[in-house]
Amino acid sequence: MKVADILRVKGGTLYTVSPDQPLSIAVDTMAERDIGSLVVIDHSDVVGMLTFREVILAIVKNGGTVGTTTVRSVMDDHPLSCTPETEIDEVRRMMLERHARYMPVMTQRTLMGVISFYDVAKAVVDSQDFENRMLKAYIRDWPEEGAAHQPARNIS
What we know:
Number of strands: 5
Shape: elongated
CATH superfamily: CBS-domain
Strand order of the largest sheet: 1-2-3
Number of helices: 5
CATH architecture: Roll
Number of domains: 1
Structural class: alpha+beta
């Protein structure tokens, strides 16, 4: 399974923020949309990711408020990224190694979407569920032992 499979199911809605916007506006957007991340875009380029992790760290550092902090000062300016062709197992490994919960999906310099650790976990579980159903159906239809070797009865 590839990242493109997740994006196809998930849809193409993207939420972005400018690096010079106040953090308070970004936090409002995240709360209103019930999302855990925003892609930071500057002049059509992805320059970072803002996740709830960076927001919480900024609030703690600023004594419990966002104050006049800008997105640029708290964003992850070197986020992990992948392509639509990246295998899900590779994405899972990358996310686990870096403790990343969100990852932009890029085709060269074009943002194609964002996948979350939840999206990856759901795709894996759905795939395993499908495989389990297929195996159970196959086993249910398994011929009884010896049934194939019994001679046909002549009913006259």
